[in-house]
């Protein structure tokens, strides 16, 4: 029996990479900012995993394209993986372009436990900026995510679905952690941020100064599968200081919990089992995660399912799609 231990959460922005654990009850995991579903899910689950005997040493504020590479090379046990980042690793493109065929080979070392819909992109502009639609943002400065993240391609696809072609605006890249303040300081005109629906930080911003949310065109509501997103809606009235009177169409990011293929079947099984047994509890504790309860367990999954996770699905009678077996 795996000995039960307390979970340790490392909230530092940068930590040393933890090698794949020799002890079966101790693993390293990386994720992004705590302000999003991407960070909230593993941070909240860490205590439940600890109760079930898995000590997850969680490092937050990481660039997930880099975290994925650490998992693929065996330098890290697990990470939250953006779906398009895995596709890029498979193809040796994007942030892995210089690696060529080596990137594709490394992608075969990654397995998935489960997927989940994460945050929604909110395209924010000040209500008095004169920008009432994406067409009004021609020639303007638009924040498209951190320099090395998977978000660049996603936000570019979102902006295009709104009606702006690449090159018709000035794309600004900066770390997630400084983006909100940079927008408030006037460093760009449109801030495309990743937020859980009903985000408190965005609500507070809207109360300081009225904001407008930009929508994708109705005919472009369904994104291409290759960008790793799903269609989403921000209902009118979600935020107190937003001037939009109708629903806003946007895109929702998709993620999966990725692990190195050498993770033991028992740990992979327990991580998966604990999540599904406690997802209702974490949803009750934070409204930003209430959508996780009804989510398809394979939404956003791009890698093959780990045998340990497959064991859990078999016990529950959940059929794994052939592409992930």
TrEMBL record:
Task: Cite the entry's keywords alphabetically.
Answer: Signal
From the UniProt annotation, give the residues forming the signal peptide.
Answer: 1-24
Instruction: Look up keyword Cell membrane and say if it applies.
Output: no
Identify the InterPro entries for this entry: TRAP_TAXI (IPR011852)
Q: Which NCBIfam families match?
A: TRAP_TAXI
This chain belongs to the protein called: TRAP transporter TAXI family solute receptor
Say which species the protein is native to.
Marinobacterium zhoushanense
Q: In the record, what lineage is assigned to the organism producing the protein?
A: Bacteria, Pseudomonadati, Pseudomonadota, Gammaproteobacteria, Oceanospirillales
